[in-house]
C-alpha cells in the first residue's frame, strides 16, 4: 500500500476507515487546514475516494489490511462504527493512534453496552432491558406497555436493526439469531416524545471540548430528513442539561472526535423540561451537517482538529437559523438538471452532493440554508432537497 | 493521460491549468458541489496536486500536453494567466470550452491591451503610455511628474515586472528586452492614492453576474498582506461606481468566472469620491480569500459555478467584518507548532495552509477572522499570520 504524499512543514496525515460521505466531507476542511487525508475505501468509486488522492481500497474487517493502511497515518479515525473489535484490538496492540479509542467506541457499537453505561452515569434513558427469550419480551412489554422497541445491539443504522413490536412472537427470528450469536437483544419502552433533538460536541485527547447548539431533527421512515439549528423554542434549562449530559458522556467515556447524542424531548417531569437519550454516534453525524455552512467551525473540521489534538474551533453559528434537508435518492438517475434548477431558484441554498449513485432512499446529498425566517427556510430547504430527489416537480 | 473518475448523476469535470493554491482552494467547494476537478500540475507535489486525485503533471506552455489534458474535461479554467496565446488558440480551435475565453483573458495577460481597452470603455485609469524608447520615457515622466511606474506588459505578478523609476536610465535593460521582443513597455503615472481597493465579481457564460462588497487591500513590498471586507468607511457612491465599473468590464470583455479589479482610491474629483483601475485578474484572487469564510458563497465555489454556467450563489457576507491576513514564508520550515499555537490563541481564526514548502516571502497560507470589532480583528489576524511566519513570537 503506497503512502499518501505528505505536505511539507510538519503537517500530519489523518487516516479514515471507510470512504462514505462523512469521510468525503472531511476533504475540504483537511485541504484548508493543510493536513493530509488518507481513506481506506470500500471501492475506488466510493464517495470519499472520488475526492481524496490517497484512497486505497481495502476491507475494514480484515485486520492486516487495516493495519497496513494505518502504518502511513499519524492518527486513524472512522467514517462508520463497523470496524470489528478484533481489528481494533490489533491496531491498538500495534500502537496505532485511534480516535475514538476502542474502549470508547464500544459504546457506540454496542447499544446494550451504551444503555448500561449511560444508566450507570445517571444519564436519562428510556426504560430498557437486555432480553434473550420470548418470556423476557412479554414480561418487559407487560411492564412498560406495548408496543416496545427492539434493537439489535450491533450493526444498525438509519432505522435498520430497529423494530417496533406488539408482541413477543414478532421477534422469534431475531431472538433465535441473538441466541446463536450470544448477543441478546435490547428492548426499550416506546417513548412518547414531543420531538427529537441532537447535541453534537467535540472532544480532544487533551480533554478540550466544544458544543454546538442543540438541534431539532426530523426523521421520516427512520431516516433523518431535516435538521433545524438551533432547536426552535427549546427550553433553556433543557438545552443546558442536554449539553451538559453530552459533555459529561464525552468526558466519562473518553470520547475523542465528534460525539453525537440523539435525544427524545419528553413531557416535563415535575415542571422541568426533560429528555432521554436515544442513540450515540462517535463521528461526524447527519445532525451536524448544518454546521458546514452555518457555523464558524463545521463538524468535519472540528473532528479533524479533535482527533489531531489541535485546539478546537469556535462553534458559533453564523445566522439565527440554519435548516438542513437531506437529499435522498429518488427515481431520477440524472441529477444535474434538477440541481441546476435548485441553484437558480435559491442563490442562498448550499447544495452538497456526495458523488454517489442514486438508489431510492439512499442519502446522496443535503442542502443547507441560513437566515432569519425559519418557516421560509424550512420551505426552501425541503423544496430544494425534494426537487433534486424528484418528489417536488415545480 | 488517464481521465479523472467521473461522479455519477451527470456531474461535470472542471479542468484547471496550474496547480497552485488557487486551484487547491477549489478542491473543497468542488467536493461539496459534487463536481469533479482535474488539475494540470507543475509537479506531483504542487499545492493542488496534494488534494486533487486527478492531477497529471504537465507543461502549460506545451500545446499538445494541455490539449491532451483538456480532452477529459467539460470546461477548462486557469490557476494563473501564464498560458501562452498559441496554446490557448489551439485549444479554442479544437473546441475546448475555455473560461475565461482567450479573447477576454488577453486583457489580463497583457497590461497594454488592458489599458487600451479600459480607456476605450471610459473606465478611470492612471495616465499611461506605451513606450519603446528612452526618449518616450523621459517625455512621459516630464509630462506627468517623476517618478513613474514601468510595467512589463506580460508575466508580472506580486510586484514582479513592476518598477518605480526616477529617470529613463533605470529602464535601459527593460527597454532593450522589450525592443527585442517587440512588446513595448507600459508606463503609468505614479498615483497618489489614499488606499488600495478591490472589487470581485463573477460572471457566467449566460451573462449572470454577482459582486461581493468592495474590499480594502494592504500591500507590503508589492505583496498583498491584508484584506478588509468590506472596505471601512467607503463612500457609498464610490462603492457603487466601483461595482458598476467591474460589472461593466466583465460584461464588455465577456469575462467568465471570477474577475478581480484592483483599484486605487484617489482624491475626490469635483467633490465626488474617485478611483482609478490598477490591475485586472481573471481568476479567483487574493483579495477574495476572505469570502471562503466570510460570505455565503466563497470565490472558489463561485468561480466553479460561473465557469460551469451554473446559477451563481449569494455573495452575502456572514458578519459585519472579515479580515484576511496572508501567511508568508519566513525562516521556520516546521510550521505545525506555530499553527497549533495560533489555533489555541484564537478559536475564531480560520487558518488556511496551502501545502507549500517555506521560502521567505512566498504565500503559504492565510488567516480569516470575522466579527464586529474591526480593530480587534485586524490585530488578531495579523498576529496569527505573523506568528506562523515567525515574525511575531509572543
From TrEMBL, chains A, B:
SUPFAM superfamilies: Glutathione synthetase ATP-binding domain-like, PreATP-grasp domain, Rudiment single hybrid motif. Gene3D superfamilies: 3.40.50.20, ATP-grasp fold, A domain, ATP-grasp fold, B domain. PROSITE patterns: ATP_GRASP. Homodimer. Catalyzes the ATP-dependent conversion of 5-aminoimidazole ribonucleotide (AIR) and HCO(3)(-) to N5-carboxyaminoimidazole ribonucleotide (N5-CAIR). Belongs to the PurK/PurT family. This is N5-carboxyaminoimidazole ribonucleotide synthase. The lineage of its organism: Bacteria, Bacillati, Actinomycetota, Actinomycetes, Micrococcales.
Amino acid at each position: 500500500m503506497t503512502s499518501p504524499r505528505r505536505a511539507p512543514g510538519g503537517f500530519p496525515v489523518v487516516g479514515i476507515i471507510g470512504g462514505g460521505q462523512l469521510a468525503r466531507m472531511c476533504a475540504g476542511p483537511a485541504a484548508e487546514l493543510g493536513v493530509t487525508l488518507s481513506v481506506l475505501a470500500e471501492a475506488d468509486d466510493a464517495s470519499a475516494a472520488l475526492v481524496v488522492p490517497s484512497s486505497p481500497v481495502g476491507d475494514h474487517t480484515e485486520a492486516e489490511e487495516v493495519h497496513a493502511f494505518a502504518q502511513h497515518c499519524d492518527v486513524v479515525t472512522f467514517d462508520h462504527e463497523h470496524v470489528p473489535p478484533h481489528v481494533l484490538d490489533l491496531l491498538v496492540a500495534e500502537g496505532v493512534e485511534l480516535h475514538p479509542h476502542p474502549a470508547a467506541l464500544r459504546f457506540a457499537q454496542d447499544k446494550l453496552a451504551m444503555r448500561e453505561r449511560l444508566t450507570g452515569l445517571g444519564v436519562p434513558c428510556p426504560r430498557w432491558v437486555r432480553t434473550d427469550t420470548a418470556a423476557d419480551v412479554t414480561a418487559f412489554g407487560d411492564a412498560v406497555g406495548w408496543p416496545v422497541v427492539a434493537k439489535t445491539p450491533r450493526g444498525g443504522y438509519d432505522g435498520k436493526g430497529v423494530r417496533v413490536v406488539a408482541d413477543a412472537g414478532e421477534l422469534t427470528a431475531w431472538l433465535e439469531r441473538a441466541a446463536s450469536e450470544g448477543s441478546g437483544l435490547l428492548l426499550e419502552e416506546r417513548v412518547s416524545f414531543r420531538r427529537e433533538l441532537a447535541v453534537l460536541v467535540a472532544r480532544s485527547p487533551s480533554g478540550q471540548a466544544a458544543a454546538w447548539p442543540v438541534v431539532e431533527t426530523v426523521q421520516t421512515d427512520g431516516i433523518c430528513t431535516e435538521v433545524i439549528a438551533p432547536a426552535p423554542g427549546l427550553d433553556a434549562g433543557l438545552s443546558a442539561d442536554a449539553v451538559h449530559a453530552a459533555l459529561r458522556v464525552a468526558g466519562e467515556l473518553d470520547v475523542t472526535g465528534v460525539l453525537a447524542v440523539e435525544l427524545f424531548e419528553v413531557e416535563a417531569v415535575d415542571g422541568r423540561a426533560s429528555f432521554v437519550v436515544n442513540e450515540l454516534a462517535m463521528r461526524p453525524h447527519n445532525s451536524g451537517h448544518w454546521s458546514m455552512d452555518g457555523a464558524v467551525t463545521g463538524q468535519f473540521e472540528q473532528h479533524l482538529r479533535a482527533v489531531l489534538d489541535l485546539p478546537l474551533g469556535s462553534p458559533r453559528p453564523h445566522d439565527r437559523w440554519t435548516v438542513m434537508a437531506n437529499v435522498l435518492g429518488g427515481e431520477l438517475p440524472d441529477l444535474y438538471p434538477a440541481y441546476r434548477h435548485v441553484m437558480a431558484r435559491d442563490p442562498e441554498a448550499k447544495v452538497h452532493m456526495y458523488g454517489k449513485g442514486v438508489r431510492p432512499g439512499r442519502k446522496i446529498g443535503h442542502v443547507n440554508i441560513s437566515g432569519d425566517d425559519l418557516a421560509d427556510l424550512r420551505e426552501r430547504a425541503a423544496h430544494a432537497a425534494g426537487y433534486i430527489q424528484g418528489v417536488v416537480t415545480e
